[in-house]
Amino acid sequence: MSADSYDYVIVGAGSAGCVLANRLSTDPAVRVLLLEAGGKDNYHWIHIPVGYLYLMGNPRTDWGFKTVAEPGLNGRSLDYPRGKVLGGCSSINGMIYMRGQARDYDTWRQLGNPGWSWDDVLPYFKKHEDQWALEPDAFDGAHARGGEWRVELARIRWDILDAFREAAAEAGIPKVDDFNRGDNEGCGYFHVNQKTGVRWNTSKGFLRPVLHRPNLTVETHAMVERLTLDGKRVTGLVMRQHGQMRTIRARREVILSAGAIGSPQIMQLSGIGPGAVLQPLGIKVAHELKGVGENLQDHLQIRCAYKVSGVKTMNERYQSLLQRAGFALEYAFLRRGPMTMAPSQLGAFVRSDASRDTPNLQYHIQPLTLPKFGEPLDPFPAFTASVANLRPTSRGTVRITATNPTAHPEIRPNYLSTPDDRQVAAASVRITRNIVSMPSLAKYHPQEFRPGPDIQGDEELARAAGSISTTIFHPVGTAKMGNDDMAVVDNRLKVHGLAGLRVADASIMPNITSGNTNSPTIMIADKAAAMILEDARGQ
User: Fold this and answer.
1) At what angle do helices 118-128 and 102-110 cross, to 10 degrees?
2) What is the pLDDT of residues 174-227, one digit of tens each?
3) Which residue among 19, 140, 264, 421 is least packed, with the fewest CB closer than 10 Å?
């Protein structure tokens, strides 16, 4: 057997890849190779929760993608962070533990994907969950302890967030303590993937505990150039590592877990995808699949912002060097305080109108404001009420623009490109204004300054939303599961028409989940591994 021959080759050691490596290497008779284009997760800012500020946009940990200029965003282009490090996006994200709604998965099943209903996927969420944000007597069959994926409560509270929660209750949005039972309607504090104030990524949870296994090999700084095919079978891949080219053979399967941008990019570079995209670049079409890189969906957050008085926010606290020194000391000795902050601590799920069968809006409430991500905080007390349409009808694309694997693909989300998405955007701002008008917040004299109280009409609000909105970093759907003409994988995540190739990451979602997408991606990988092992036993 060649040293470069493995049974399973996993491309991408991110949120999905670390799980796959853990599960597939449980069989000592198989050799598993896990490839990561980035480096090890040994950078200190990965582990300090507030460090996400220094990870997004940092070439050490982020691919550095950008979208095209978007008409729905009034000609703006957005930074599009994707993790490039062991743990992938779980190493740089907002650490929010969110499964989505039972409706999401039941819809996947109804779209022709048996085995993916809520009742089918809940056991996988529980299999790897280590739930410490709730006491066991509150689990009610929906949660578990002892798995690899640590879940805790945030270790900081803000009066302004408590007041927003009270105001939401006054507006008819009930208080809840758990968003992860299948119906996340209500307002409450997010559960986070942390352990005693330190980020918990999939590298810590799933990969490090099994690195001792002799049948598991992990390679970093390994850039996959293309897959290799023999007719309609994927036989392995070609990668570049430290300036050297290597050919890797996969005796059983290659599993792409490079994410909603990386997985379709690799397939397209390999001649798998829409001929209309590949042929103009001189790429021979090895397997026509017109859905590769299509169906891109993402959550766009409208960052409504309000000045306040009589209550502390991060804006003015951060201006004080003395207070910032106090943050560091509090974290160093207690693992508490602002340095443990996820980007958002308080959340809410509501309906944009009565016709929605389940909540289709998600709030991320922050005790701070800033003009743009990466810029300094505003110099006055204020809070942000970001609100995202959970079920956008806009669809975008990811398409390579060159045969060079290091060239970034064209990412075109097509935000706010449908009448429904624009109507929901306008409704979102109005619902936010209603919550903020309630007595529990009125005592702090909130004054809207983004988008601005003078903006009222539906189209005016939608246009203004396009100017203050940003991605919430949830791209999915670009190698969707199903059996229609645009589907890329079947319900066992095998690529249609090809042997030896599966996709197991957020790209397989037919429709985006109703909430943060990291934990659903981990579930997808856990379920994928079970199916791969089942199929291997059946051979």
Assistant:
1) 130
2) 999 999 999 999 999 999 999 999 999 999 999 999 999 999 999 999 999 999
3) 140
- What is the pairing mode between strands 198-199 and 194-195? antiparallel
Residue 236 tokens, joined: 């392995």
Residues in the chain: 539
- Beta-bridged to residue 33, according to DSSP, are 9, 217
Give dist(CA 318, CA 537) in Å, integer.
Answer: 57
Instruction: Please list, in sequence order, all residues whose beta carbon lies within 8 angstroms of the beta carbon of residue 208, skipping any fewer than 6 positions away.
Output: none
- The reply to whether 299 belongs to the active site is no
pTM of this structure: 0.98
Side-chain-side CA neighbours of 456 within 13 Å: the count stands at: 1
Per-state percent for the chain, helix, strand, coil, to nearest 5:
30, 25, 45
pLDDT in tens, 426-466: 999 999 999 999 999 999 999 999 999 999 999 999 999 99
Query: What secondary structure letter does DSSP report for 376?
Result: P
Nearest to 380 by CA among 318, 331, 436: 318
What is the band of 539 on the pLDDT scale with cuts at 50, 70, 90? low
The token pair that represents 219 in the structure block: 């390679």
Distance between CA atoms of residues 462 and 335, nearest Å: 41
DSSP label of 280: G
Catalytically annotated residue among 143, 287, 299, 474: 474
Q: Write the CA distances from 462 to 88, 371, 384, 490, integer angstroms.
A: 33, 19, 18, 37
Distance separating alpha carbons of residues 308 and 302, to the nearest angstrom:
19
If DSSP states are collapsed to H, E and C, what string results for 35-79?
Answer: ECCCECCCCHHHHCHHHHHHCCCCCCCECCEEECCEHHHCCECCE
